[in-house]
Amino acid sequence: MYDYLILTTRAILMEAVICGVITGYTRMKADKTEKRIVWVFALTGVLLSLFIAFMRNTTSMIDSAILNGYVYAISLSAFVLFLVFTLKPFKDAKNPVIRKIPWIMLGILFMTLIVYAMPEVWAYPYRVQMDEQTMISTDFLMAMIGFTAGLVLVVVTFLAVEKCTMRLSDRAVAVLLRLELLLNAAMRLSGLFSVFFQKKIVVSNHTMFTYTVFVKNHSDWFIFASLALVCLVSVLLWIQSLRQNEPYTNPAEHRKIRAKWRNIRRWATTVMIVSVLGVLNITVVEAMNSTDVTLSPIEDATKVDDENVYVSFDLVADGHLHRFAYETEKGVVIRFIVIKKPNSSAYGIGLDACDVCGETGYYEKDGQVVCNLCDVVMNISTIGFKGGCNPIVIPYEIKDGQIIVPISGLLEYESEFK
After folding, report:
1. Are residues 336 and 253 in the same domain?
2. CA 220, CA 226: separation in Å to the nearest integer?
3. pLDDT tens per residue, the chain (418 residues)?
4. Which of 95, 140, 307, 308 is the right S-S partner for 132, CB 3.0 to 4.6 Å?
5. Which domain does 359 fall in, by range?
6. Rounded to whole angstroms, how far apart are CA atoms 173 and 166?
7. Is 86 in a helix, a strand, or coil?
8. What residue spans of 199-250 are helical by DSSP H?
9. Do 174 and 205 belong together in one domain?
10. Are both 238 and 307 inside the same structural domain?
């Protein structure tokens, strides 16, 4: 249960906060047409995320790195254009098309947040069902309870942030929106650099590599910062509610004003509560729930030269999981796994890492390969194919009774390993 509570919370909590700020800002500032623009993009994002989730889990046609690269690039471009077209010269423009551009960019940002975060979440029930092979089991029920609890927490966070955002002044809501989008942009930029390195689109340099690794290794900090911003807003609203002195002309109007501020305090309190619960989920609960599985040791390859790592069939013919590695000039140990597929002469080969859970690795349990972070059981027959929590695919060839893994193919993923 706790696995999917933690996974769901970690996957979309920050996105829920940012989307709540966007919708609150939109409800405050947008006219009817501008609101429609934002909602259309949001709906498009939901439909696209469902389609991507379906394709990832039923086909091998989706290259997650390339897809995410497009999402990162579109998100960053929309953020920059939003900042530009909300500057005073453009805000005061007489051309109505120019005045709509910020809302189009905000809608695109909303869409990319959903497309990036939601496909994995939509896929969790499918993965649990594949793991359990049936929906009639205690494990399936507990996993779905955790998944549902995570969704409820995130939805309440979204609604509470939206309600609080709508009570801010124009200046305060504008600052909050830009700060939240800036945090998102910092993470998307890191992801884009990572894709560039993997696909050799750009040559890595020290600054880009250091930035990418820092953001990836401290991604929780960005979640905490996003929550801290809305918590600060909630505290300010609380203080404002205690000092409110809105004028009124009769007792009925006074009661209405008091009821309004009581409602604001409740939503502000809700923001603080769900923020604390979210932080506890991805810190204390995750630490308590973690199973300290010891990964099998890295084995010596048959041979390593300047170009390839060689693994003899004799080393991996027993049908068990075997782990090998190559150490780069920077001292980074890039691990990959090999396992002979059941009832077959083929081998499952991939990095000891995946696009979803990172380089936490895999372990063998009761003849099955299991992700060390999310406990998803791999279908051994699909190891070597893209998608889901499967190991990241790497190039290799079979020749003369050996598996030959080119070092250049491993170096593409150097940034994946700490």
Report:
1. no
2. 10
3. 677 888 889 889 999 999 999 999 999 999 999 999 999 999 999 999 999 988 887 777 777 788 989 999 999 999 999 999 998 777 777 788 888 999 999 999 999 999 999 998 888 887 776 655 556 667 778 888 888 999 999 999 999 999 999 999 999 999 999 999 999 999 999 999 888 877 778 776 778 888 988 888 888 999 999 999 999 999 999 988 888 778 888 888 888 888 888 999 999 999 999 999 999 998 888 877 765 567 778 888 888 888 899 999 888 888 888 999 888 888 888 999 899 888 778 888 888 888 767 788 888 876 778 887 766 777 787 787 776 677 888 889 888 889 999 998 888 888 778 6
4. 140
5. 303-416
6. 8
7. coil
8. 206-217, 219-242
9. yes
10. no
HEC profile for 334-399? EEEEEEECCCCCCEEEEECCECCCECCCEEEECCEEEECCCCCEECHHHECECCCCCCCCCCCEEE
Q: In whole angstroms, how far apart are CA 257 and each of 103, 159, 236, 253? A: 32, 22, 18, 6
- Asked if 91 and 191 sit in the same domain, the reply is yes
pTM: 0.75
Please list the residues that pair with 333 across neighbouring strands.
Answer: 327
Tell me how many domains the chain contains.
2
Q: Yes or no: say if 115 and 48 are a contact pair by the CB < 8 Å rule.
A: yes
Whether 297 is covered by a domain: the verdict is no
89 and 164 together in one domain: yes
| Chain CA centroid to CA 88, Å | 34
Q: Which residues contact 218 (CB under 8 A, 6 or more apart)?
A: none
Alpha helices in 133-284 (DSSP H): 138-165, 170-198, 206-217, 219-242, 251-280
Domain at 331, CATH number: 2.102.10.10
Q: Are residues 331 and 183 in the same domain?
A: no
Three-class DSSP category at 333: strand
Instruction: Give residue 55's identity as a one-letter amino acid code.
Output: M
Are 37 and 100 spatial neighbours (Cβ–Cβ below 8 Å)? yes
Matching residue, tokens 């259309």? 40
In sign, the C-alpha dihedral spanning 273, 276, 282, 284 is negative
Tally Cβ neighbours within 10 Å of residue 371.
22
